[in-house]
């Protein structure tokens, strides 16, 4: 089956989490990183929607650290789901229950490399089904093979792990 497009809407992300069986987590939209009072606590990570640029190398050091759960994006139109799952897989909080579907995925994929994790994710009928139940046909997603570069948008996740901030971009080989 195909993966359809997902819009950049915190309500859609939050409902998608419910669909995956995640409990104790919600997605909020931020208009500024300066307004600390507007942030709900705790914050587990940030997901940005960027214009995608061919050849962008990013800032930071490539880190194939096996303790960081990172799945590469191997199919088009799944980057919203990929972004939120990469964030959730790195959560360590007893107040957040990631549910049986994502727990099973994490346990199954924990020893795999990022590309294989991405393949397993893309081949999951259950995850695709949840993704597609929130999809919209007309919204931003990355199409690497066609279209003008300025028309391409891409979700990138940032998570704090072990005192550092890691960029989890499904188009890269490893976290930065």
Helix and strand composition category: alpha+beta
Quaternary structure: single chain
The overall strand count is 3
H and E order: HEHHHHEE
The portion of residues forming beta strands comes to 5-15%
The proportion of residues forming helix, as a percent range, comes to 25-40%
N- and C-termini, Cα separation: 31 Å
SS field, number of helical segments: 5
Main sheet overview: 3 strands, antiparallel
In spatial order, strands of the major sheet run 1-2-3
- Uncertain spans: 137-150
Shape: globular
Radius of gyration: 15 Å
Mean pLDDT: 82
Describe the protein.
The protein has 176 residues and is α+β, with helices and mostly antiparallel strands. It has five helices and three strands, in the order αβααααββ. The protein has helices at 10-20, 79-88, 99-109, 114-122, 125-133, and strands at residues 46-51, 153-161, 164-168. Strands 1-2-3 form a three-stranded antiparallel sheet, covered by helices on one side. A hairpin with a 2-residue loop joins strand 2 and strand 3 (164-168). The protein is globular and about 40 Å long.
